[in-house]
## 1
Amino acid sequence: MTKTWLVTGTHTGFGKELATQLAQRDDVNLVATARKLEHLDYLDQYDHGQIKKAKLDVTDHDEVVNAVEAANDRFNGIDVLVNNAGLGYFGTFEESDLDDAKYMFDVNVWGLVDMTRAVLPTMRKQKSGLIINFSSIGGLYSFPTLAFYHGTKYAVEGITESIAKETADLGIKTMLIEPSGFRTDWAGRSSHKTMPSHEDYQQFAEFIENNAEGAHHEPGDPVKAAEIIINQAMNHSNDVPAHLPLGKISSDLAIEKYTKLLQEFKDKRELSLSADRPEEAN
Ligand SMILES: NC(=O)c1ccc[n+]([C@@H]2O[C@H](COP(=O)([O-])OP(=O)(O)OC[C@H]3O[C@@H](n4cnc5c(N)ncnc54)[C@H](OP(=O)(O)O)[C@@H]3O)[C@@H](O)[C@H]2O)c1
């Protein structure tokens, strides 16, 4: 059965790779979106009527509404929404530029929220749909100099898990994508950086520099990531993973964090229970 996918941020990186692979399938209608339509010219070679391009900055509500309307008008529904568009930002918590941090929240969180709220009525009407939200290992595990990026991605995790509980009976599923480093533009042009200026934070300069210099040398392959995501969504749509760490570093850190947290929760169990009123104890 043909499925209609709407993907945000398909100019570069994961979004471009997803769009390129989806455009070559005979069981997909694709709504590819980018801030500039000419950034989607690469799709023309695959287009035989199954591709709709839409100009979409996810921080622009009118463009969000128009993209969703265009998808519904052209393909009469939306089966898979991929909230991929996103930015990074490096800087210590104290020294970060809050305008940069707030803009990142506008894209990574509020853009995703706006897109999802625009698509949900279609999916509720269909009684089916899959929402794929790009989180990050940075939505599960925290590093220095990424406090605000983590803020956006932990927000995406919590929002998505809550949506999943609200829509489970409506035939709508969610999948969180949690990659570690992949060869895209994220660590380079898509992440503003504020180098530490205070001597107390100099030790973190190297971490920021290494991430910038490591851009496009990361272990993760976006081609393989896109194959995995499409395969999960097309072949296992009734049983998609709610969380999908991608890359060894992501898997290792997620397991490390949650194993440690589980042990901490168990170690503190008596203390935790002691906070309830005595009559609630059982
Ligand atoms: N690569 C990694 O290592 C990694 C790891 C974990 C999570 N992620 C997440 O993966 C997602 C995709 O990033 P990527 O790695 O593929 O990086 P990327 O190559 O930089 O791609 C990001 C895409 O988002 C688009 N975008 C940025 N702001 C936008 C806006 N306001 N409206 C619409 N589109 C916008 C960009 O469009 P322009 O070309 O117009 O700027 C670009 O096409 C992000 O959510 C990112 O946080 C990446």
## 2
Amino acid sequence: MHIAVLGLGPAGSVLAHRAVARGWTVDGYDPACRDTDGSPTLPEWRSTYGLPVAALPDWANSLIPFSSVSPGLSAHTPGHRVLDYGGYGMVDRTALRERLVPGIRLHRRRVDAPTARTLGVDAVIDCRGVVDRPGSVRQIAYGIFLPPETAQDAGLATSEFMDWRPSPRASEHREGGPSFLYVQDLGD
Ligand SMILES: Cc1cc2nc3c(=O)[nH]c(=O)nc-3n(C[C@H](O)[C@H](O)[C@H](O)COP(=O)(O)OP(=O)(O)OC[C@H]3O[C@@H](n4cnc5c(N)ncnc54)[C@H](O)[C@@H]3O)c2cc1C
């Protein structure tokens, strides 16, 4: 098989890696691929990725490196609940990207649906992520990195999967929609 993968976020990159492992020829396309010494590398992934480790299949468990694994998933909805999913791991993105890249033929290029039909491959896999459509709902988050001691002082030392309790200063931010706090130890 010779396939083209459009979009090299986590989904496209892992899919491309699995296809290479099967002996397939894989061309990966993403305009966000970076150039290192003249050759493209996988895009920087800007999000943080957390996973319940026990939910992963065996091949993913041996492939995906974690920078930290918290013992359990704690949630406030607003009542406190501990979710029975086992450890919650934060993906070490840099290490994972290095593991995925060998064998994928990378192209720093945007490819749309009409162009994809001209690539001359056996299959095109669309991993371009969420595409904005009129009226679609969009999730927005921002994150801050805190040294462990600062997190401790702010009462943010315990991993929190979803904390839906109102912020102590919520009344100052009435215009906002529903929101939750997410706290994870990144291990570094
Ligand atoms: C606010 C927010 C918070 C999140 N928090 C978490 C979290 O805490 N933990 C977690 O696990 N997940 C989280 N997610 C979800 C996570 O970011 C997504 O599930 C994940 O990025 C999806 O991966 P993907 O590879 O499908 O798509 P994406 O990461 O969106 O990658 C798509 C890729 O396609 C490329 N592309 C786009 N158009 C083209 C084109 N025409 N041709 C070629 N390439 C193209 C883009 O450059 C991009 O690199 C969050 C998402 C959001 C929006």
